[in-house]
Design a protein that fits this description.
two-stranded parallel ribbon; single chain; 35% helix; 4 helices; alpha+beta
Length: 127
């Protein structure tokens, strides 16, 4: 996400929303400190928290991206490393594979996934 911030820094039509999956621990102050530690500079990158059940419902049912508690993994939580690209109307945008099937999410842990989302953000910003 830092690469995306750096690529689109200063563009008022671009933003990032990072949503905690540990709202009991991740208070607004903790999230602010985390943003500073990461080097977040874009004024439109928001670190969000809220009700745990709502967050998990949003992740799992709204975005269809897994997030949940698991006491068998380090930290006690797990989630996908995928990014969703949301347009100005709140709709998930995607690209298609060679066969025309939608690819709904971008792998934020893979260089090719980061490049793909950069390309698609540029297209959205031109709309």
């Amino acid at each position: 996400m830092l690469q995306l911030q750096n690529e689109f820094y200063g563009n008022p039509n671009f933003g990032i929303a990072s949503i905690t999956i540990d709202p009991a621990k991740d208070t607004p102050q903790i999230l602010k400190e985390h943003a500073n530690l990461l080097g977040v500079k874009h004024y439109n990158w928001h670190f969000l928290t809220g009700d745990k059940e709502y967050i998990y419902s949003l992740a799992n049912k709204g975005f269809n991206l897994y997030a949940g508690e698991n006491n068998k993994v380090a930290g006690g939580f797990e989630h996908s490393g995928l990014f969703a690209l949301i347009d100005k109307d709140g709709k998930i945008r995607c690209r298609k594979d060679a066969q025309g099937n939608p690819i709904l999410y971008y792998d934020g842990l893979d260089a090719a996934g980061v490049e793909a989302i950069k390309e698609d953000i540029k297209k959205l910003l031109e709309e």
